[in-house]
Amino acid sequence: MAQQTNVGALLSMLDSSMLGVLDDIIAVFKENLNSDRGPMLVNTLVDYYLETNSQPVLHILTTLQEPHDKHLLDKINEYVGKAATRLRILSLLGHVIRLQPSWKHKLSQAPLLPSLLKCLKTDTDVVVLTTGVLVLITMLPMIPQSGKQHLHDFFDIFGRLSSWCLKKPGHVTEIYLVHLHASVYALFHRLYGMYPCNFVSFLRSHYSMKENLETFEEVVKPMMEHVRIHPELVTGSKDHELDPRRWKRLETHDVVIECAKISLDPTEASYEDGYSVFHQISSRFPHRSADITTSLYVDTQNSYGSATSTPYSSSWLMLLNTPGQLPQTLSSPSTRLLTEPPQATLWSPSMVCGMTTPPTSPGNVPPELSHPYSKVFGTTAGGKGTPLGTPATSPPPAPLCHSDDYVHISLPQATVTPPKREERTDSARPCLHRQHHLPNDRGLEEIPGGKGSVTLSDLPEFLGDLASDEDSIEKDKEEAAISKELSEITTADAEPVVPRGGFDSPFYRDSLPGSQRKTHSAASGAQGTNVNPEPLNSSLDKLGPDTPKQAFTPIDLPCGGADESPAGNRERQTSLEMSILTPSPCKIPPQRGVGFGSGQHPPYDHLFEVALPKTAYQFVSKKTEELLKKVKGNTEEDYAPSPSPMEVLDRLIQQGADAHTKELNKLSLPSKSVDWTHFGGSPPSDEIHTLRNQLLLLHNQLLYERFKRQQHALRNRRLLRKVIKAAALEEHNAAMKDQLKLQEKDIQIWKVSLQKEQARYSQLQEQRDTVVTQLHSQIRQLQHDREEFYNQSQELQTKLEDCRNMIAELRIELKKANSKVCHTELLLSQVSQKLSNSESVQQQMEFLNRQLLVLGEVNELYLEQLQNKHADTTKEVEMMKTAYRKELEKNRSHVLQQNQRLDTSQKRILELESHLAKKDHLLLEQKKYLEDVKVQARGQLQAAESRYEAQKRINQVFELEILDLYGRLEKDGLLKKLEEEKTEAAEAAEERLDCCNDGCSDAGVGHNEEASGHNGETKIPRSGSTRGNSGSRGGGGSSSSSSELSTPEKPTNQRASPFSSRWETTMGEPSTSIPMTVGSLPSSKSFLGMKARELFRNKSESQCDEDGMTISSLSETLKTELGKDSDLEAKTPLNLDGLYPSTPNPDSVGQLRIMDYNETHHEHS
Amino acid sequence: MTEDSQRNFRSVYYEKVGFRGVEEKKSLEILLKDDRLGILPPHHESHTLVMMYRKDQYADILHALKVIRFVSDTTPQAEIYLRMYQLESGKLPRSPSFPLEPEDEVFLAIAKAMEEMVEDNVDCYWIIRSFVNQLKNKYRDSLPQLPKAFEHYLNLEDSRLLNHLKTCSVVSRLPYDLWFKMCFAGCLPESSLQRVWDKVVSGSCKILVFVAVEILLTFKMKVMALNSAEKITKFLENIPQDSSDAIVSKAIDLWHKHCGTPVH
Predict the structure, then answer these.
(1) CB pairs A-B closer than 8 Å
(2) Is the distance from CB of A478 to CB of A468 less than 8 angstroms?
(3) Residue range A555-573: average pLDDT?
(4) How distant is the Cα of B190 from the closest Cα of chain A, in angstroms?
C-alpha cells in the first residue's frame, strides 16, 4: 500500500517542471521496473498516462524492457476492448510501436493484434479507425510473418475502410475522411507492397462484387494508379509471399522501403538501388533534387540578374521566403504578379506544366499538382518540383505564400479554367492531357457532386480574400530584409558551407565524391524540372521547345557545375532559419517529402525531443490545432481534384495553414514573438471538438510519417555503411593496384632475367649444335669405316666359305681313298687267305695222294686175301636170319593182341564209371523223392489226424449227447428194470473179465466205480451195467474220456496205456463182427505181430512228435525185408489194412516197389 | 545230365524253399496262401486227398452238429463255423442258447468277414479256423504288445494327435479289441480287409498297428474336433467306409517306411 501511495506520489511528481527531479523520478521508475517483474507498476503507469497524458510516463512506457512487455500489451489489449479508452490507448500503442522495442516480434503472437484487428473491423469512429490503421501500418513491417494468420483480416479492414471513404456512414465529418483516406491509402501501399499476390487476388475477388464496384472505381482504382506492377506478381506466388523465410532476412526498414519501391506516388516512393528507370528518375529524382536545382536555378537567375521569366524569380523568391518571410514574398509577388498574367497568357501555366512534366510520368503527380498549383508553381520549377521540395524545406507559411500566388494568378484563371482545359486538350499533347483529364474531370465532377459547399473555384476566392487581407507593411519589411540577406549569401562565399549540407542529404553525399556525377545530377534535375522539353524529352513534348527551351537552356548548362555550392549554402540557410524560427514546420514536413526531409529533419527532431520536452510539444500541437481549425473549412475544397490522398492531406494542411495565417493576420494577435505566426487566437467555439480530433489525426499521421522517416534514416545509415564499405573496397582496390604494379615490376625484372637466360640458353644451344655436328661427322666417318670393314669381312667370309667347301671336298676324297685302301686291304687278306688255303689243300692233296697210294696197296693186299678165303659162313647166317625174322613177327603180333586187350578193358572201365555216376544220381533222386513222399505222407497224415481228431470230438459230442439223453431217460426210468439190468450187467462184466484177463476188468470196474463215484447223481453205474455192449462202450467211452483227460498230462513214455485203452475200444467195437482170435493178435509173437506193433508204436510216436523217423524206419524195414521174403510182404499190408485202416494207402508201398532205384539195384547186383 | 542243365535254373532254389514246382502259377499262389495257414500240404499230389479229408471232416462235424441239433438249416453260416470250431476245440457249450464268450465274438466277426471273401463253405471254414488258430498261437505273445506299438508310431507320426488323445484320456479306451483281436473285421470293408489280412497271414501282425495309426491320421480332423473319450471311441468303431482303400494303402506305405522291408 505504501508503495502504491508512493507510486502515486511519484507519478504526480513526474509532471514537475524541474528537470532534475524529473530525471530522478524516471530513474526511480526504471529501477523499480528492473527490480519488479509484476504487472502492477506498468498498469498504474498506463492508467496514469491515460488520465494525464503525461509525457514522462509515455517516455517510460515506450522504453519498457523485455519482461514488462507482456503486461503492457495485456493492459493495452484490455483498454482496446473498451470504447472509451480506445483512442488514447491506440495512440499509446502507436508511440510504443514506433520506437520499435526489442520485443516487437512478440506482437504477432500477442492477443492485442487480433483485438486490434477486431476493433478496426467493428469500430465506427473515424478517429479511432485512422489511428488504428496507422498503428497497424506501422506494425505490419515489424511482423510481416503474421500475415499468414491475419492476412484476410487486413484485407477485410482495407475493404471496409475503403468503402468508408466513399460511403461515409453515419455522421462522419468530411475532414476526417481525408485522414482516413490517407491512412487507407497508406494501408493500400503497405499491403500491396508486402503481399501483392494475395492482395491482388483479394481485390479481384472483393471488387468483382457489384456492390463494391463503386468503391473500387472511386477509391481503390485511383490508389492503384500510384503503384507500379509489383515484381512479386510475376515471380512470386501466394504461398511464397507468406513464407516466413522471405521475411526473415528483411528488417523493418527493408520492408518499408520495399513497399515504397513499388509506389509511383512521389510522396511515398523510393528510388533506391536503381530500381526505377529513367522516367521515374525524372519524375522522382528531380523532385528531390528539385530543392537543389530549383533553388540553385533561382540563385543563378538571381545572381545573373538576368531578366528571364518573372515566374521563376518570383518562385525563387517564394522559396527563399518560405521559411520565414511570407509577407515579404507576398508583397513582391503581388507586384510581379501583375506582370505575370500577360506571361501566363503567352505561355500559360498549364502549358508549362505540361511541358515540364516528364513525358512518361504524367499519370501520377504532376497533373494533380499542376492542376491546382501549376498555375502558380508551373512558373517556378515545373509544377511538381516545388510542391515537393518546398514543403520539405519550408514551413506552413510557404504554402500560404503559394496560395497567395495562386490567388493572384488563379483568380482570373479559375474562371477561365474549363474552357482553357478544353483548349489544352485540343492542343497537341494528347498523352499528357488524357492523363490530366482523368483526375481533372473527376475532380470537376466531384466538386459539384459531393464534397463540400466550397468549390474549387470558390476556394481561391475565399483564400484570395484572406490573402488580400494579409498584405501589410510588415511583410514588405521582411521582404526587404530577406532580399538583402539573400543577396549577401549569393554574392558572398559559398564553398565553406557545402560540407554541412552535403552530410545531411544523400544527394550531397552523392555529389561530393564525383564532381561529374554531381553535375549530372544537377543537370538531370534541371532537365527534369526546367529543361524537360529539351533533347531528353521524348516525342510527347513537341510543343515544348518553343519558349522554355530558349529561356532555360542557357541557364541550365552553366549553373549545373558552378552553382551547386550556393544551393547548398542556401539550403543550409533555410534550414537554419527554420530551426530558429519555428517548431511547427517540423510537423508538416514529415507528411510529405520524406526522402528529402530525412536530410533536414534530425535537427528538428533533436529540438523536439530534447530542447522542447513537453511544453513545446503541447505548444506546437496547440498551434497546429488552431491552424487546422482554420484550415478545416478549406480542406474540403482541396479534396476534390486530388487522387492522391497524401496530396489531399497536404493540401488540406496547406490550405489550413494558409487560412490560419490569414486569419491570424486578420486577428493580428500580438502574443507571439515570431512575427509570421500569430497563434493563440481563439478559434470558433462550435468546431472545437472536430478540430481537436483532426489535430489528433494529424498528429497520428505525423507520427506515422516520422516513423517512416526513421525507417528511411535507418536505411540511409545502412546505405552509408555500404558506401563506406565500397570506399574501403576501393582503397583495397587501390592497394591491390599498387601491389599489381609492384608485381608488374617484378615481372619486368623476371622478363629481363628471362631474356638473359634465353640468350644464355641459345648460346649453349649453339655450342651444343656445333658439338653435335662434329659428332655427327665423326659418326659418319666411323660409319664409313665400319662399312669398309664390313665389306672386307664379307670378302673374307666368302673366302672362308670357299675354303670350307674345299676342305669338305678334300675330306670326301680322303674318305673315298680310305675306303679304297680298306677295300684293297680286305682283298689282300682274302687273297692271302686263299693262298694259304690253296697251300694247305695242296698239302692235303699230297697227303691224300699218299694215302691213296697206301690204300691202293692195302686194297691190292686185301683183294688178294679175299680171293683166298670166300664160301663157308653164308648158309648159317641165312638160317639165323630167317629164324630171327620169324621170331620178330611172332612178338609183333603178340604186342598187337596185348594192345587190343588194353583198349577194350579201358573202354569197359569208362562204361562202368558212367554207370556208377548214373546210379549215384538216381540214388540222390530217390532220396529226394523219398523225402517228398515222406513230407507228402506227413501232410496226409496230419490231415487224417485232424480228421481223426474231429471225429473224436464228434464222438465225444455224440457220447455227451447220448449220455445226456440217457440222463433224461433215466430220470423217468423204472426201478425194476434197473434191478434186472443190474444183474445182467454184472454177469456180462464177469464174462468179460473171464475172456480177457488183463487189467481191463480192473480198469472197467475201476471205471465203473469211478463212473459211479463220478456221477452218482445221474446214476451212471446202472447204465454202465445195463448191457455188455453198452457197458463196454461205456467203458470205452469212459476210458477214452479218461485217456482224453490223461493225454495232455502224461509224458510220452506213458503212452502205452492210452494206446492200449484205445486199442481196447477199437477191439470192443469190432468184437461183435470179427472173431476173438483177431483180438489176440497183438499177443502173438510172430513177425507180423511184431511188425504191427512196431508200426503202431511208430504211429503213436508220430502222433505226438512230428518226426519223420517212423516212416523212415518203416521204409528201412521195407527195404531190408523186401528182397528177403515176399510172402510176408504180401501179408503185412493186409494185416496192416485190417488192423489199422487209417494207415497210409498201400499205393505208396507199391510205388516204392516200382521205383527205378530198385531196378538199378537189381541191375547192379 | 542234359535234362538237368535244361531245367529252370531257379528250380534248385525253389526246391530248397520247399516248392515242388514252378510251372503252375495257381498252385504257387495256393501254396503261398495256404501253406502259411497249413490247410494244404506243400505237395500238389496230396492236395486232392487232403482236401477230401478236409471236406469229410467238415461234413462230419456239420453232420454231428446237426445230429445233436446244435445247428439247423436256418442257422447263419458264421454261427455254423463257430459251432464247428467250438466242437473241434472241445469247447462246445452244453446248449446253443448259452451266452457267447468274447473269443467267440471275435471268431464270429472274423467268420463273417471271411464269409464274404471265400465262396466255398469248406474252404471258408478251414481258412477261418486256421486264421484264428494262427492268431491264437503264433501271435499270442505279440498281440498284447500292439497297443504300445500303436502309441509309439502315432507319436512318431503325429504327436499332437496323440497328445489330444491323451488329454481326452482316450488312449487306453481305443477299440483295441476291434483292431487287434478282430483284425478290423467289421471295421473295414472286405476288399480292403483282404489286403490287411494277407499281411497278417504272411506273418506280420504289425500291419494292424499301422492300419490303426493311419485310421487316426486320416480322421485326424474329426478326432481333434471331438473331445470326449466316448465320442472318439464311438467314431473310431464306426469309421466311414469310403476311404478304407486309401487307408490301407497308406498303412502299407507306413509299414514299409517304419519296418523297412515288406518281409516281416
Answers:
(1) 63
(2) no
(3) 40
(4) 29
pLDDT of residue A752: 95
What is the structure's pLDDT at A89? 84
User: B230: which 3 cell numbers?
Assistant: 466316448
Helix B146-157 with B244-259: angle, nearest 10 deg = 90
Confidence of residue A994 (pLDDT cuts 50, 70, 90): low
Mean pLDDT of A505-513: 40
User: Residue B64: which of A939, A942, A957 has the nearest Cβ?
Assistant: A957
**Rg, C-alpha atoms of chain B:** 21
| DSSP state for residue A145 in the 8-state scheme | G
Stretch A1103-1116: mean pLDDT: 47
Query: Cα–Cα distance between A92 and A110 in angstroms, integer?
Result: 16
Q: How many Å apart are CA A414 and CA A641, to the nearest integer?
A: 13
- State the first-to-last Cα distance of chain A, in angstroms, to the nearest integer: 169
Subunit contact B41:A938, Cβ cutoff 8 A: yes
**β-sheet bridge partners, residue A227:** A263
Residue A384 near residue A366 (C-beta atoms within 8 A): yes
> What is the nearest CA distance from B46 to chain A, expressed in angstroms?
6
CA pair distance B76, B112, nearest whole angstrom? 10
Could you list the pLDDT tens digit for every one of the 264 residues in chain B? 444 444 456 555 655 665 554 444 444 444 445 555 667 777 777 788 888 888 888 888 888 888 888 888 888 888 888 888 888 888 888 888 888 888 888 888 888 888 888 888 888 888 888 888 888 888 888 888 888 888 888 888 888 888 888 888 888 888 888 888 888 888 888 888 888 888 888 777 888 888 888 888 888 888 888 888 888 888 888 888 788 888 888 888 888 888 765 444
CA of A932, closest CA in chain B: separation in Å? 8
Residue B77: count of CB within 10 angstroms of its CB: 14
**Four-CA torsion A1065, A1069, A1073, A1076, nearest 10 degrees:** 20
Q: Using CB atoms, which residue from A932, A939, A953 is nearest to B88? A: A953
Looking at chain B, how many residues does it have?
A: 264
Q: Which residues of A touch B68 (CB under 8 A)?
A: 957-958, 961
Instruction: Check: CB of residue A600 under 8 Å from CB of residue A393.
Output: yes
Q: Which three cell numbers stand for residue A422?
A: 478544353
The whole-angstrom distance between B97's CA and the closest CA on chain A is 16
CB contact under 8 A, B61 and A961: no
Nearest-by-Cβ selection for A954 from B40, B45, B61: B61
Whether residue A225 has pLDDT greater than 60:
yes
Nearest to B81 by CA among B103, B58, B47: B58
Taking any CB pair shorter than 8 Å as contact, residues of chain B touching chain A are 20, 40-43, 45-46, 49-50, 53-54, 56-57, 60-61, 63-65, 67-68, 87-88, 90, 92
| Residue positions counted in chain A | 1165
Do A943 and B43 lie within an 8 Å CB cutoff?
no
Residue among B133, B124, B126, B106 nearest B200 (CA)? B133
- Nearest-Cα residue of chain B relative to residue A914: B1
Backbone angles phi, psi at A232, to 5 degrees: -65, -30
**DSSP class of residue A871?**
S
Our CA-based measurement puts residue A1004 at a distance from the nearest CA of chain B, in whole angstroms, of 25
A1054-1063 pLDDT, tens per residue? 444 444 444 4
Coil, helix or strand at residue B188 = strand
Q: H helices then E strands: how many in chain B? A: 15, 0
Query: Whole-angstrom Cα distance, residue A809 to residue A811?
Result: 5
Residue A587 has pLDDT above 60, yes or no: no
Collapsing DSSP states into helix, strand and coil, what is residue A360?
Answer: coil
Three-state DSSP at A270 gives coil
pTM higher than 0.95 = no
